[in-house]
Amino acid sequence: MTDFNDRKRAEEAKYVMDQDTAFRVMARRNRLVGQWAAEKMNLTSEETDAYAKAVVQADFEEAGDEDVIRKLLGDLTAAGVEVDESAVRAALAEKTIEARRQLMGEA
Prior knowledge:
The longest helix is centred in the N-terminal third of the chain and has 39 residues, at about 1-40. The two termini are about 35 Å apart. The chain is elongated, with a radius of gyration of 17 Å. The chain has helices at about 1-40, 45-60, 65-80, 85-105. It has about 110 residues and is an all-alpha fold. The protein is built from 4 helices and no strands.
């Protein structure tokens, strides 16, 4: 019985750790894609930091990436940057890989 309980606790701990890692990857990805967009909008370094944080915050509006995509597309378009949804999605995919690599490098 203790083996079963130990295995159950180990699986629960792994689940919690996996969820934490996924959250950290998405937050890092959103910061990186915010910096990418800020560069396209020619923002200053202070504005870039603030914008990257705003993109991270935008991800808490709804589940999935649509809230982030909507924010990025709206802001880039308003700034006169020619970009479409596929370019934003490609940047998200690229920055997800980069964020994962960065976090694995910290471990």
